[in-house]
Amino acid sequence: MTIRRPEDFKHYEVQLPDVKIHYVREGAGPTLLLLHGWPGFWWEWSKVIGPLAEHYDVIVPDLRGFGDSEKPDLNDLSKYSLDKAADDQAALLDALGIEKAYVVGHDFAAIVLHKFIRKYSDRVIKAAIFDPIQPDFGPVYFGLGHVHESWYSQFHQLDMAVEVVGSSREVCKKYFKHFFDHWSYRDELLTEEELEVHVDNCMKPDNIHGGFNYYRANIRPDAALWTDLDHTMSDLPVTMIWGLGDTCVPYAPLIEFVPKYYSNYTMETIEDCGHFLMVEKPEIAIDRIKTAFR
């Protein structure tokens, strides 16, 4: 299969109040904002951008610290809070003169979107969250029954982690390949060419560090990740889309917590799919997004 490489897309940069953000943009129509997670960057949406651009003005940014977006002071973890990342999306819409958008978030961006929906509900038409994460996630994620899956989040806290993973291209490739494969339903998520694109991104200056800072700032047992506002109920129309084979953000027991935070949601589950729906089953991802945003 021929892939669309990063250079096959149109790239833009915009200076926001405290960070420069890189994004890809394609199509026309109502705005659709696609937000990536770790260990990805904007390109994790590459298989769905073109088809969705037939119906939407698709905007796909790199979160601060990722991809070709700016990496603010790497020693100041406050600059890598997920609240900051949520604020960036509002600032991005402001900079582009966009009042409202459909928004999709995955992985870290599932948390970003949880926050964005509450802080900027007037900017969201409808939302879709892949493998949703709510405030009750912490006890499950850090629990003894999940530590074999969440160990990496604590490895990322170590000063040596960035140096070790970035010590060579081969080490970087093996490290990130583990997560792409382990979190997907099938044994190997990416082709060799696709994997090399991700390694190219990770080996850019400070990209490993920027991604690890999201764990250092937000994913620790003592992190102040969730605000009082994050614990409130939202009545915004939201579609939750969950790969039943996701071992990173498991459907059970996390499904139990969704009704505590959303009163107007639809739940979609995908068989034979893991953490990366937009990569594993792009046709289904496209269909579910279009259906959710009718």
TrEMBL record:
E.C. designation(s): 3.3.2.3
Coiled-coil intervals: none
AB hydrolase-1 domain boundaries: 30-282
Annotated site residues (Increase basicity of an active site residue) in this chain: 152, 246
Catalytic residue positions: 107, 215, 275
UniProt GO MF annotations: hydrolase activity
InterPro entries for this protein: AB_hydrolase_1, AB_hydrolase_fold, Epox_hydrolase-like
Keywords from the named record: Hydrolase
Name of the protein in its database record: Epoxide hydrolase
The organism of origin for this protein: Agrobacterium tumefaciens
Gene name tied to this protein: echA
